[in-house]
Each structure stands twice: as structure tokens, then as C-alpha cells.
Design a protein that fits this description.
Structural class: alpha/beta
Order of helices and strands: EEHEHHEEHEEHHEHEHHHHH
CATH superfamily of the largest domain: 2-enoyl-CoA Hydratase, Chain A, domain 1
Radius of gyration: 20 Å
Strand order of the largest sheet: 1-2-3-4-6-9
Bound molecules: coenzyme A
CATH architecture of the largest domain: Alpha-Beta Complex
Strand content: 5-15%
Number of domains: 2
Shape: globular
Largest sheet: 6 strands, mixed
Number of helices: 12
């Protein structure tokens, strides 16, 4: 299948892994209205693309993403309410609605710079692998604005309150190792190994049952907003739904292999489907 060509983003493939790259390197991948529209279109298409088993969000050039484009999103948007409204809707749609609910696992592969609005797609991804020397910053305070869109909400969800307030209030930059300590990333690796370590982790995900992965990520995200009684009920119904959807789970193949055939140790690795 030939992927659509976009002006502001690029789709690259490596087997079952799909790399969706922000592609405005000269502007450090600052997010323009055009980039937001392209991302909406690509994520809609990739969400139903059977060849994509894991989606990786990266950035071409020296930066992962320098946040919203101050000129094209903010300044031009202030002059044109229709442009601003569409850009704002598209911006929220791809970075939160489409990405956080993407039906396959998603990984933020972060190098260079990640500022401001970039934190929303960072938090929307299921996993984040970052370069040790990447620079993160909530630089909004330096522009006389608050971490808007939903960035403040993302921080409140992902970070401890002391850390969220400290970095939002001061705008102080931090590196990839600190991002791990703050709970924003799973692991930090040397920049030269970022791609290979991301591919290594993503390939492990492709070995897991895709339906169980999808239901697990949906469940973990949704229960955060529930009380314990609602969560218990929701998880029971979700499991029933999974068993109807997936024959391997419905037939309790794993339990048969472990309890009866004694051929499989689920604690030690994924079930080799079809073997
Ligand atoms: N919006 C619009 N343009 C941006 C941008 C942004 N958020 N971030 C970078 N750019 C543009 C610069 O204006 C410059 O454009 P030009 O070549 O037409 O002059 C180009 O990208 C390269 O930026 P430059 O600053 O020269 O690159 P650098 O590698 O020295 O520094 C950053 C990179 C990301 C550290 C620096 O550009 C920066 O601080 N950007 C602002 C990030 C920010 O605060 N984002 C949050 C917005 S709320």
C-alpha cells in the first residue's frame, strides 16, 4: 500500500511498525494549522490500517516538537477566528481524541526538543522513550500564557502535583533522564540508540495479543476517572466483551496450555499464537 503524501508530516514503515513523523524540521516541528489537519487525516487512516501494529510518533530534524507554531497558530489565528477555530479543533482532535484512543499501542519517540503543546501528544501516547539529552520545557510562562489547550490537565494527570506546578510555573527546562524521574517517560536512552531501542520495544509489543493490548490500554486510561465500584463493574463487562471479541481468550487457550498441557509459562513471556 502506498501511503498518502502530506505537506507537514511523513509516514514511514518498518514491517508492522508505522512511524508517523512531524515534518517541519526547519521550524523545529512547531505545530501549524496545516500540520494539525494532516495529523487528523493520517491518524484516522492509520487507526483502521491492518498493517500497523504499533504506531510511533517521531519528529524529523533536530527537534521532536517545539510546541504550537507561535506565528501560524497563535498570531495568524488571532487575526482569523475561522482559521483559529478549525486549528484549535484539529489540534485537540489528533493530539488527544485520536491519539489517546488509538486502537493499537502508541510510542512517543522523543529527541531534541519538546516544548509546550508537545506535552499533550507526549501524554496521549501509551509509552514514551526519550533521548537522554532531549530538552523538555513548559515554556508558556515565558510567553505570558498558561499551559493551555489541555496541557495543564495532562501535567496534572501524569505528574505529581509538586513537579507539575514547579515546571509549569518556572518554565525550567529538563532532560530525558529527568523526564523519566517525573513519570513523563518510560526510559531514557543515548540519542544514538533512540530509534533502535524504540524498534526493539515496539517489536516486543507486536508479539502480544493485539485485542488484549487494546482493551488493557483502554481500561487503564478509563478507570482513572471512576470510583472503585464503577471501575469494578466496568472491568468485568470489559473482560466479557474481550472474551466475545477474541477467540483465543474466549476459548481460554492460555489456561489450557498452562494448567492442562503445562506447555506455557505466562509469567515469563507472551503466548506464541499459532504455534
Ligand atoms: N513557533 C514558531 N516557530 C518556531 C517555534 C515555534 N514554537 N519554534 C521554533 N520556531 C522556528 C524559529 O522561529 C526559526 O524560524 P526561522 O528560521 O524562520 O527564523 C526556526 O524554527 C528554528 O528555530 P531556532 O530557534 O533558530 O532553532 P534552535 O535549534 O536554535 O532552537 C528551540 C530550537 C526549540 C529551542 C527554539 O526555537 C525555541 O525556543 N522555540 C520556542 C519553543 C517554545 O517556547 N514553544 C512553546 C510555545 S507555547
Amino acid at each position: 500500500m502506498t501511503d498518502k503524501k502530506y505537506e507537514n508530516i511523513e509516514i514511514k514503515r518498518e514491517g508492522a511498525l508505522t512511524f508517523l513523523m512531524l515534518n517541519r524540521p526547519d521550524k523545529r516541528n512547531a505545530m501549524s494549522p496545516g500540520l494539525h489537519a494532516d495529523m487528523c487525516d493520517a491518524l484516522e487512516a492509520l487507526s483502521v490500517d491492518a498493517a500497523t501494529r504499533v504506531l510511533i510518533i517521531g519528529g524529523n530534524g533536530p527537534a521532536w516538537c517545539a510546541g504550537q507554531d507561535l506565528k501560524l497558530y497563535f498570531r495568524e489565528g488571532a487575526k482569523d477566528p475561522a482559521l483559529r477555530r478549525k486549528a484549535s479543533n484539529d489540534s485537540h482532535r489528533w493530539r488527544w481524541e485520536l491519539l489517546s484512543k488509538f486502537p493499537k499501542p502508541t510510542i512517543a519517540m522523543v529527541h531534541g526538543f519538546a516544548f509546550g503543546g508537545a506535552f499533550t501528544q507526549l501524554c496521549a501516547c501509551d509509552f514514551a522513550i526519550v533521548a537522554e539529552d532531549a530538552t523538555f520545557g513548559l515554556s508558556e510562562v515565558n510567553w505570558g500564557i498558561i499551559p493551555g489547550g489541555i496541557v495543564s490537565w495532562n501535567l496534572a494527570e501524569m505528574m505529581l502535583p509538586r513537579h507539575a506546578l514547579y515546571y509549569a510555573a518556572t518554565g525550567e527546562p529538563f532532560d530525558g533522564k529527568r523526564a523519566v524521574e517525573l513519570g513523563l517517560a518510560n526510559f531514557a536512552v543515548p540519542a544514538k540508540d533512540l530509534r533502535s531501542r524504540t524498534v526493539e520495544f515496539a517489536s516486543k509489543l507486536t508479539k502480544l495479543n493485539p485485542n488484549v493490548l487494546r482493551y488493557t490500554k483502554e481500561a487503564v486510561r478509563v478507570v482513572r476517572g471512576m470510583n472503585v465500584e464503577d471501575a469494578k463493574d466496568y472491568l468485568a463487562v470489559k473482560q466479557d466483551s474481550l472474551m466475545r471479541l477474541d477467540k483465543e481468550i474466549g476459548d481460554r487457550v492460555g489456561m489450557t496450555e498452562f494448567l492442562d498441557k503445562k506447555s506455557y509459562r505466562p509469567g515469563l513471556g507472551p503466548y506464541q499464537r499459532g504455534s
